[in-house]
Amino acid sequence: MKALRARSAGARTAGGVRPAHRPEAEPRAGEGGTLAFLAELSQALAVSLDLRQTLSETVTRVVDFMQVEAASLFLLDPATLVLDCRICIGPVDITGVRLAVGQGIVGAAVAGNATQLVVDASNDARVWRAADESTGFVTRSLVCAPLRTAAGPIGVLEIVNRRDGTPFSTADAELLDLVAAPAALAINSARMAASLLEQQRLKREFDLARRLQKSLLPHRRRDGFPVIGVNRPAHEISGDFYDHFELADGRIGFVVGDISGKGLDAALLMVRAASLLRWAGKDGIEPAAWLARANDELCETTQDGRFVCALVGYCDRAATRVRFAGAGFPPVIVQRGDAFDEYASGGPPLGILPGVVFEQREIALDGGTFYAFSDGATDVRDADGRPIGNAGVRALIARHAHASLEPRLRGLLADLKQLRLVDDTTLLLVEAPRAEHPELLVERRMPARAESLRELRGSVRAALDALGVEPRLRDRLVLAVDEACANIIRHGYGPSCEGDIELRLARTGTTLAFELRDTAPCADPAALRPRPLGEMRCGGLGIALIDEVMDDWRVEPAACGRGNRLVMHKRIEDIAGEANEA
Amino acid sequence: MSVSPNGVAAERGDGYVLVRLSGEVDLSWSQEVRRAVLDALAAGTPVGVELSAVSYIDSSGIAALVEGFQQARQNGGRFALVAVSDAVRAVLELARLDRVFVILPSADALLAA
């Protein structure tokens, strides 16, 4: 209603249509009828979110209520300033007619953003007559009202010839001006709804593409596999990919790739390139020939200037040597102790020139680590917005080099994330599997008293939070540790509680180990059995809860008759690999 | 996460007794909780244990509630947990006791149910 009032107030000034005396042949239903018509029209349009339906609803109702021979609705294309007739009712179909802004009375209504009343069309040179001339229809009188919005007119509503033969009056012009207001509003809403739908459709397609891409990335292997890849998309979908696979002869093949450009078509090329490169490497041919084969294949089908940067190679299971070839890929970095070496391997990106010969090289790792970063990493921006380059990536590696694999990957990714990621970033590393050293997270000793429990829970909780363990699992683990300590206090040491409890929490890879030591009399492991849950009994619930929460646990009494060691294990989700394992 | 201090207090309602617990219920004071629950049951009216401000509960706290439940059943009385916090519910679910206890949204329901 607010918009309607505002528009009707504006019509008097902007439209230049002044209320005049009411001719005899005047409206069919009087003031009340007009209001009822406007209210009905507004309501009908308010519930319509379909543009076509909105337009035809408007025109149909106007023809019926105002009793005219013809009515039409033009929409303005703001880019070309052309008015396009979208709906037309009447003896002559002018749907599809296009008029420039300023052309005819329709064009004049938009040009002046004002309602135009032509009482006698035969005496007005501005009237567009092409349709009349070709069909024999006679335009005697017409009114054109602009469809006004805050951002200017978006079209025109036109009525032609009253059915009773009398010319249009200023009252008719005013009424059309009033009708135009809710129509413009409804068209805007319908357009907005359409663009929302379009956005949702795009989002669904992007989600699908992202899932498809993710499904192409291999899962992280935990069995001492020497090749590990991590991918961080900068946007919803990634142009990067990596792959690794085992050959029958025991060698391990690997691929890292980076598609030029962004968006859905780049994502689809990525899917194609990833499967092509995997296929081309499965025979175990030399890396240079591998790239050449993929290149020729891609050249045949890749158009519009897109290309693929890639690095492919093989290593042995112990990662002593790596043989690789690159196509437009940044030099690989090999870190051996404090020394860093860069190895470029020439060759243009894939998909540009068929028949290209690629270079390959073989290097000994000597216990070092081979890092292949897509250029997303070197493109990462520092605080001043400058790309960090290969030197920056080297510094990044150096900062984390001492750490074992999981914390190192975590650290590298966290640093890259903290810097500004402008492109997809993929890291593939090759190194000899090392025995992983446990990372000690908590080490505490406290008196074996119930009053110690609260603080103990706090330190376990904080350590788990720091690891990013999700709250539900965190609370369960805290409960299990608390239950174990409570059992030691109550049953281990007993009422004359004199002694300490030592807690160590360590992480090895993705496994958490909780270790509790006491100096209480030795427990009988056979007596420590979980009872079924769900029973209304008071005793033994603690052990049952521990058993429920942990993957495994055991009590080892010391040989000398005093002292016990309880070890509990729980495997947690890999935090560093979340990007490609979720 | 609630930061209520540990506390237990019995309130006499209209035809029932409500035992309000708050804080972290663990071995260090679960005996007090047990005592308060059993004392409340001694009055012979329905008993509710209000748990909305309990941010942690271990098996010794659960045991006090189990004892209350059993005591009430022996004497034909009513015993329910009222306004159970998420933290308590998680432990009840873990112990598979969430369907064994009567759990009510508010103390008023003690009489209605």
In short:
The complex is a heterodimer of chains A (582) and B (113). Chain A has 582 residues and is of the alpha+beta class.
Could you explain how this protein is built, in words?
Chain B: Residues 6-113 form the STAS domain. Chain B: InterPro entries: Anti-sigma_ant, STAS_dom, STAS_dom_sf. Chain B: GO terms for molecular function: anti-sigma factor antagonist activity. Chain B: This is Anti-sigma factor antagonist. Chain B: Belongs to the anti-sigma-factor antagonist family. Chain A: It comes from Dokdonella fugitiva. The complex is a heterodimer of chains A (582) and B (113). With 582 residues, chain A is an alpha+beta fold. Chain A folds into 3 domains: 2-193, GAF domain (Beta-Lactamase, 2-Layer Sandwich), CATH 3.30.450; 217-431, PPM-type phosphatase domain (Phosphatase 2c, domain 1, 4-Layer Sandwich), CATH 3.60.40.10; 439-578, Histidine kinase-like ATPase, C-terminal domain (Heat Shock Protein 90, 2-Layer Sandwich). Chain A has 15 helices and 21 strands. Chain A has helices at residues 2-15, 30-46, 51-66, 104-112, 130-135, 170-216, 263-281, 287-301, 375-378, 389-400, 405-418, 453-467, 471-493, 541-549, 578-581, and strands spanning 68-77, 82-89, 98-100, 116-118, 142-149, 152-162, 227-232, 240-246, 252-259, 308-315, 321-327, 332-336, 339-343, 361-364, 369-373, 425-431, 439-447, 500-508, 511-521, 552-557, 562-571. In chain A, the strands form 4 sheets. A 6-stranded antiparallel β-sheet of chain A has the order 3-2-1-6-5-4, sandwiched between helices. In chain A, strand 1 and strand 2 form a beta hairpin. In chain A, helix 7 packs across helix 8 and helix 12 packs antiparallel against helix 13. The radius of gyration of chain A is 38 Å and the shape is elongated. Chain B has 113 residues and is α/β, with parallel strands linked by helices. Chain B has a single domain, classed as 2-Layer Sandwich (Transcription Regulator spoIIAA). Chain B has helices at 30-42, 59-74, 86-94, 109-112, and strands at residues 7-12, 17-25, 47-57, 79-82, 103-104. In chain B, strand 3 (47-57), helix 2 and strand 4 form a beta-alpha-beta unit. Chain B starts with 6 loop residues before the first strand and ends with a helix. The model of chain B has no long low-confidence stretch (mean pLDDT 91). Classes of the chains: A alpha+beta (582), B alpha/beta (113). The A-B interface holds A 449-451, 453-454, 457, 472, 475-476, 479, 482-483, 486, 489-490, 533-534, 536-539, 541-542, 544-545, 548-549 and B 24, 26-29, 56, 58-60, 62-63, 66-67, 69-70, 87, 90-91, 94-97, 100.
